[in-house]
Design brief:
By secondary structure, the protein is an alpha+beta fold. It folds into two domains: 2-196, Rossmann fold (3-Layer(aba) Sandwich), CATH 3.40.50; 228-331, no CATH class. Helix content is 36%, strand content 14%. The strands form three sheets. A six-stranded antiparallel beta sheet has the order 5-6-8-7-9-10, with helices on both faces. A hairpin with a 6-residue loop joins β7 and β8. α5 crosses α7. The longest helix is centred in the first third of the chain and has 14 residues, at 83-96.
């Protein structure tokens, strides 16, 4: 938002590009969960474009991004986040995007700040992004430009370098001060980003998925379901995805034809999916676990409805809620 606004204030026409990888928090999670709060849910890319009054182009790169995630040349960050390769990919994709050439756009800007991210925004890695993406001096970082060599737009006088900034480090106070001076009253979370791959819990779930399947393949549904619910793996061949609230329970109903589906009928409780191939005994265990998360957790018997993904037929299972809390904690992914 700041980078775009700074350049727009110099009379330059700016349009936004948002790459959809499937791993962003804002794409699904806030819309799925029912948190009963008053905070307005929004997609920040769309909201920023609306606030600035610019066009936004959303590009689906889910399939292309697999190579970035599975084989990052520069490795991962603290979790499964290939941040440096991700930046290179997105700048390269922007540069090669036919819209840029067809509409005579002249250069690319990003909101990167030197020293703000430990993997991709260090002094040593910013030049790598420019070089390996092929952008070279067509890539301008308005917020840290004065710490970097002059870009082509600056050299040619398209941009006034004196009106750019020298932000550095992880402190966001200077950016917040700039935002207020530019008349911006609201902005997205100033730290953390939206990528789930930087999240330890999500990365653990993704790693567990790959291990259980003995394959690093994934599809969009896999990405989304890793964001939803509690994930409990009692054995290597199956796990449970258990809704945490009404919103997630409603969402999981949409997968009844793809997974064995569990819901409590004698007591209020969460819906759940069985991911994997479970034996009859394991399905009964799954029903016990679901019963534990229902309002019948203290009852002697809870009725759980199990719907088969193969036949679509439902059956009622009467079980005693699972009691071994220690085992459950061990099974949580």
């Amino acid at each position: 938002m700041l980078a775009a606004k700074v350049i727009m204030n110099q009379g330059i026409h700016v349009e936004g590009i948002n790459f959809y990888t499937g791993f962003c928090v804002e794409g699904h999670t806030s819309a799925i969960r029912n948190q009963n709060n008053t905070k307005k849910k929004r997609n920040n890319a769309l909201w920023v474009a609306e606030t600035l009054g610019i066009k936004l182009h959303i590009i689906d790169v889910v399939e292309e991004y697999k190579e970035v995630l599975l084989s990052p040349k520069h490795g991962y960050g603290q979790n499964l986040n290939p941040c440096l390769d991700c930046k290179i990919f997105m700048v390269k994709k922007s540069l090669a995007w036919s819209f840029m050439k067809e509409n005579s756009f002249d250069f690319i800007i990003t909101g990167e700040v030197m020293g703000q991210r430990p993997k991709s925004q260090r002094k040593a890695t910013l030049p790598i992004i420019a070089r390996e993406s092929g952008a070279e001096d067509l890539l301008l970082r308005p917020l840290s430009a004065k710490h970097l060599p002059e870009s082509l737009p600056e050299q040619r006088g398209w941009i006034d370098r004196s009106a750019l900034y020298a932000f550095h480090g992880r402190n966001r106070k200077p950016q917040i001060k700039l935002a207020k001076s530019l008349g911006l009253a609201d902005w997205s979370q100033p730290a953390g980003g939206c990528c789930f791959l930087t999240n330890k819990g999500y990365s653990s779930k993704l790693s567990d998925l790959w291990t259980s399947r003995q394959s690093r393949e994934y599809d969009l549904d896999d990405i989304i379901l890793l964001k939803v619910g509690r994930h409990v793996r009692p054995d290597h061949n199956f796990k449970l995805i258990i809704a945490r609230d009404e919103g997630e329970s409603n969402y999981l109903k949409g997968y009844k034809s793809d997974y064995d589906f569990l819901t409590t009928t004698s007591h209020n409780g969460p819906n759940a999916l069985i991911d994997g191939i479970a034996s009859r005994q394991q399905k009964l265990l799954a029903a016990q676990i679901i019963a534990r998360y229902s309002q019948g957790r203290s009852a002697n018997e809870v009725t759980v409805e199990l719907t088969s993904k193969e036949t679509g037929i439902s059956e009622a299972l009467t079980v005693k809620p699972f009691e071994d809390q220690g085992a459950l904690e061990t099974w949580h992914v």
